Structures are given as structure tokens and as C-alpha cells.
Amino acid sequence: MRLAVFLSGRGSNFAAIHQAIAEKRLHAEIVAVISNRADAPGIARARQLGLPAHVIDNRDSASREAHEQRIAEVLREARPDFIALAGYMRLLSATFIASYRNRIVNIHPSLLPAFPGVDAQAQAIAHGVKISGCTVHFVDELLDSGPIIVQHAVEVLDDDTAETLSARILEQEHEAYVEALQILSTGRFRIEGRRVLQT
Ligand code: GRF
Q1: Other residues' Cβ atoms within 10 Å of the Cβ of residue 5
Q2: Rounded mean pLDDT of the chain?
Q3: What is the DSSP-derived secondary structure letter of residue 94?
């Protein structure tokens, strides 16, 4: 599986994916790492690892379309089978999503459809849920929507802060993302409506 990773920041999910590939737990090749931020620690890490790293700053483009055109040029060369969004803080246009239909996946730090959007872990604490977690899902035109591939549950403790809960969810994110990508790499799944079924 040829994989492109999009990130905007820390890049711990990207690092976990890379490590799983290095340890042969995930059968994939990272063919491009794309960041919209030059100062993202994740893109520095990609360079250190000798991966094809590209900074494509959205602020250098006049519009979302123009920015995505530049991304599309890189992808045309890299030819990924799948794109993994790993803390990528830009919304993708419907046109871009349509051109990679069911080939873009995202990770979100809650059990979707609960708590989409930003600060999902703080939303979970504020709502008083006892269980939260993370979700790897296909990307569709709606925010944190799209068929769910893998979810991992994490207990919310009485004394959790957004930070402590985020840290425990993040450990599960790293495992869930690798698990989901491994399912995609085998090709042994099908999407029926909203359901992703392993075949
Ligand atoms: C993760 O919590 C992920 O669920 C969310 O953004 C964060 C990215 O973290 N979409 P990292 O950059 O992978 O460390």
C-alpha cells in the first residue's frame, strides 16, 4: 500500500505509522508526507527519517482550490493508494475528497459520532461520558463523518483533565491507526452504506 500522510503539527500518529511499517506490523510504504505548516514537528521528523517531505503552506495560495492544486501535483507524482490525515488541521474541499473517494482516512479523538470538531477530549469530559476513545474513519464531505473503520474505547476517569484523557486516548490512536491501515492494505474490506465490513 502506497500511503501519503497529511499533518499540521506534532505528528505522533505519523511516527506511530512509520514505526509500525519499520517493524513490519504494517505493510505499507510512505510515499509522501505533506504539511501545511513549515514549523510542524511532524515534517521535521519526516525529513530526519529520510521520507519525501513536502511543506505546502496554505497561506501561500490564494484559495483552498489553489492550495489543493499544489497538493494534487505532489500526489500525482507520489501515487498514493490511500491518504492518512494525521492531525491535519485543514478542511478538504468536496472536489478533492471526490477525487480520492474512499481513499482518505482520518483519526479523531472521540468515539464518533460523539464529539466531532475541535477539543473532542474536553467535550467528552464536559459532557460527563464515562467512556470515550478514538475513531479511524473514511473522510466524506462532512466534518468527522464517513464510514468507521476502527474504534478503540478509553475509560474517562473522575479526575481526568483534557490533558490526561488526551494522553491515554493518544496511546490508543497510535494502535487504532495502524490497525485500520493494515485492514486497508489487505484490501479485504467493503463499504456498505455507513458500514465498513471486513471480508
Ligand atoms: C490527534 O489527537 C488526532 O486524533 C487529531 O489530532 C491529533 C494529532 O496528533 N486529529 P499528532 O499530530 O498525530 O500527534
Answers
A1: 28
A2: 98
A3: H
Residue with grid cell 505532489, as numbered in its chain: 74
CA 90 to ligand 1 center in whole angstroms: 13
Lining residues, ligand 1, CB within 6 Å = 7, 9-13, 42, 86-87, 107-109, 170, 173
Query: If we measure between CA atoms, which residue out of 28, 6, 8, 9 comes closest to residue 17?
Result: 28
Q: Which residue CA neighbors atom 9 of ligand 1 most closely?
A: 87
Q: Backbone phi, then psi, for 118, in 5-degree steps? A: -80, 160
Q: Using most ligand atoms within 8 A of CB, pick from 173, 175, 181 the residue to mutate for ligand 1.
A: 173
Q: Which residues are catalytic?
A: 108
Reported as a single tens digit per residue, the pLDDT across 17-26 is 999 999 999 9
Residue of 132, 126, 86 lying closest to 110 (CA atoms) = 132
Distances (CA, A) of 6 to 84, 90, 106, 157: 6, 10, 10, 32
Please provide residue 51's backbone torsions phi and psi, each rounded to the nearest 5 degrees: -90, 155
Ligand 1 atom 1: residue of nearest CA: 87
Atom 12 in ligand 1: residue holding the nearest Cα:
11
- Joined together, the cell numbers standing for residue 165 give 484523557
The model's confidence at residue 178, banded by pLDDT at 50, 70 and 90, is: very high
Nearest partner of 15 among 50, 45, 53, 48, judged by Cα:
45
